[in-house]
Amino acid sequence: MAAIYRRELKSYFQSMTGYVFIAFVVLFIGIYFMAYNMMSGYPYFSYTLSGMVTIIMIGIPVLTMRSFADDRKTKTDQLLLTAPVSVGKIVVGKYLSMVTVFAVPVVLSGLCPLIIKMNGTAHLKADYAAILAFFLLGCVYIAIGMFISSLTESQIIAAVGTFGMILLLILWPNLVGFLPTTALGSLIGFVLLWSIAVFIVQRVTSHNGLAFILEAAGIIVMAGLYLIRRGLFDRALTSVMEKVAIAGVFQNFAEHYIFDAGGLVSYISIIFLLVFLTVQSIEKRRWS
Amino acid sequence: MIEVKNLVKDYGGHLAVDHLNFTIQDGKIYGFLGPNGAGKSTTMNIITGYIGATEGDVWINGHNILEDPEEAKKCIGYLPELPPLYVDMTVKEQLDFAAELKKIPKKNKEEEILKVMKLAKLEDVSGRLIRNLSKGYRQRVGLAQAVLGFPPVIILDEPTVGLDPKQIIEIRDTIRELGQNHTVILSSHILSEVSAVCDHVLIIDRGRLIASDSPENLERQMADASGMELLIKGEEKQIREILDTLPQAADVIVVDSGEELVKKVTFRMNAAEEETDIREAIFFAFADQRLPILSMHVSRASLEEVFLELTAEAEAESGNNKEGIQEEPEVQAEIETEDTDTETEDTETETEDTDTETDGKEEL
User: Fold this and answer.
1) Which pLDDT value is given to residue B256?
2) Handedness of CA B188, B192, B197, B198 (dihedral sign)
């Protein structure tokens, strides 16, 4: 794991990707910081970070696109997968190297609240908590990018896919507004979601019987609940879907100055889930 | 020791490996031989744990590649068809990285790397970026990487493809050297390479094992095919009359050789009489009739012929198999190139040369 971590990190700085990414992020932190905090005199650095959420949406796909797609294309994955190292360690090694590259501009941004303090009132606790949330949000985006990169051989598809996925997550809170709020609408929504999940299970296991049983069981349970306690389904779909909007946790920190510990735990859980999915996607590829 | 039991790899309806069984003993050089698409690379990829098999098991020194992958992989050094090298690293960095992946203890690392660099003759390029290396050097870095740490089993997938004749000879020498202390498995579709290097040949065709024996034994099985080639100055009728008096000669073919009055005569030796040396008898028979023999050459059955015979048999068996028909053109192409080889070979060194040339053509 350490060997893979070191190699990947070195490669980011040999191929310029690392420097370009860091320069890009630092440049925009500088621009937003100058505009919001220096010129407009706004005392919270977290305001700058809110602007940065859309900037890293462009930067992170560039960082993550080659992580697995390139290995697969150049067949260097043969070296990794035939070495006495488990797939989990390969994935974690690569993931941590990308997190390290991302940590560089985040650590540099840690100077900004101090600069604000030198010029007047600063809210250091709120700002550093926001920086932590921003870092973890970036780590979630990196995990998304790594997972998408492990699905394809093409770096372009990996980058565009990651960008699209992150953009979708950012737009999510607005999109949820279009969902039906009635009990029946929620029921139909849940059935559709369940069907998609069952379809994925069917594709992965190629087991028709299992998929059929799962689908039938899901529909019976949901329909039963609907008949017994209709109130349970009121606005249920929107409230569940709102949970997917992961940028909301960061907004709690940056805009409402709340230390959302539960939110941070959910970020870390999502990271673990995506690392696990990346391992599975690589294992799966070896078997098909 | 490697045991492969009932191995199957199904690529969505196409059986790349079809119930393969074999055992690899320690301390020998094994050759996997087969036409393109025979399943050699797939088999090697399964043995090394790069891809999973649809069915069947692989044990490496008692470790199952699925249940105990880390221990099993520690026993293997693998050079795939395309050397897996990071082009943004130098040769030294690449080998450093491979040594760490293979968990070679830190204190031995430098020493081990120096050893393999010497073995693969890489000392001069150790500081160069792999991006800037030629194909031959990349192949050598790949070889050094596979050999690094001297695992008991070394698996090489077409190690000489795309190299120039000098490099081929060097790599073959290296493989022979390694074979003294390691089990080496190499795959190839070049027959002379396998017969030159390997102690044991496994012939694979369409995912099935169709022969497994030493090259000598395989050639002996084909004793029927040994014959003789002569250049004689004289008339066809006269030549035939003389040869009719010799009981060993059968299926005499006389053709013009291109030179005036000189005929090229080829015949097969009768199996019953095969062991006796008839060269003297031929010489005196023609000398008595004052027909000069300009050249005389005994052609033994080569591995090429064994290979063609065996793959042809396998093809005939699965004649109405749909996949067989699909792959036919490829096998046919193989036969043609190998045929030119057999015709032009005269001495051992020449064979190697012509081989490389044919190789070049195939690459194109």
Assistant:
1) 82
2) positive
Contacts of residue A143, defined as CB under 8 A and 6 or more positions apart, other chains included, come to A95, A270, A271, A274, A275, A278
Q: Smallest CA–CA separation between B314 and chain A, in Å? A: 28
Q: Where are the beta strands (DSSP E) in chain B?
A: 2-11, 14-24, 29-33, 55-60, 63-64, 76-79, 153-157, 183-188, 200-205, 208-213, 227-233, 249-256, 262-269, 293-299
CA distance B82 to B271: 45
Check whether A64 has a pLDDT greater than 90. yes
- Determine contact, residues B68/B364, Cβ cutoff 8 Å: no
Reported as a single tens digit per residue, the pLDDT across A152-205 is: 999 999 999 999 999 998 888 888 888 888 888 888 888 999 999 999 888 777
Cβ neighbourhood burial of A221 (10 Å; 0-12, 13-18, 19+): exposed
DSSP code of A153? S
Optimal mutation site among B81, B86, B129, interface A, most CBs of chain A within 10 A: B86
Q: Looking at the predicted structure, is the pLDDT value of residue B323 above 60?
A: no
State whether residue B59 sits within 8 Å of chain A by CB: no
For residue A85, what is the nearest residue in chain B, using CA coordinates? B70
**């992170």: which residue's tokens?**
A60
Non-local (6+) Cβ contacts of B125 within 8 A are: B91, B133, B137
The ipTM is 0.84
Q: What is the Cα gyration radius of chain A?
A: 22
User: Position of tokens 């420097």?
Assistant: A19
Helices A261-287 and A247-254, packing angle to 10 deg:
150
Q: Which residue has the tokens 């036919």?
A: B328
Strands across the sheet with B200-205, in order? B76-79, B153-157, B183-188, B29-33, B200-205, B208-213
CA-closest candidate to residue B60, choices B176, B212, B183, B168 = B183
Mean pLDDT taken over chain A: 90
- How many CB atoms lie under 10 A from the CB of residue A27? 12
User: Does B351 have pLDDT greater than 80?
Assistant: no
Contacts of B45 in chain A (CB under 8 A): 78
